[in-house]
Amino acid sequence: MRLYDFYDSGNGYKIRLLLAGLGQPYEYVEIDILKGESRTPQFLARNPTGRVPVLELDDGRHLAESNAILWYLARGSRFIPDDPYRQAQVLQWLFFEQYQLEPNIAVARYWMRHGLAEAKRDRLPEKHAGGAAALAVLEQRLRDHDWLVGETYGIADIALYGYTHAAADGGFDLASWPAVTAWIDRVAARPGHVRMDDVPPAN
């Protein structure tokens, strides 16, 4: 398999984290979105939305949207529960991540890491408020649970961890969310864990 990804993308990191947990080898192809490499005709043929990550399967087919890729890769593994209700709970968290957490925490992080904070200063409070609301939901769940779904670490945790663990880059004080911080530490302590900056050599 081949993963088209941008080194600083939390969405791409989610895929790298699961692949490491599965022990699945893959080829890494760096796509520098800051240089417009996701807008070339070659990349748009793989994903018309022009977004990373994109997974190229062994048979040449392509799959986009990070949480769809997580589901595809994790099927039949310990990272997705067998019980249909638990599976639906996983999907619930995946939707939450893309609709409530990522649009706020990831966007604030991108603006602050790539020199856009001043230009976006009028919109940052809105993103910080939305991100804080998402973190509050996580905090409530994780006060009494080690993992987001059931009793084991799975792709719900991976999906939410991708940007949550890096929320400080977007101006969020994670010390305000002790249950979330403890969960972040648990994820980081998992066997085979890779950090966001542990990017494979690009091919």
UniProtKB/TrEMBL annotation:
Keywords: Oxidoreductase. SUPFAM superfamilies: GST C-terminal domain-like, Thioredoxin-like. It is an enzyme of class 1 (oxidoreductase). This is Disulfide-bond oxidoreductase YfcG. InterPro entries: Glutathione-S-Trfase_C-like (IPR010987), Glutathione-S-Trfase_C_sf (IPR036282), Glutathione_S-Trfase (IPR040079), Glutathione_S-Trfase_N (IPR004045), GST_C (IPR004046), Thioredoxin-like_sf (IPR036249). Belongs to the GST superfamily. Residues 83-203 form the GST C-terminal domain. GO terms for molecular function: oxidoreductase activity. Residues 1-81 form the GST N-terminal domain. Its EC number is 1.8.4.-. It comes from the Bacteria.
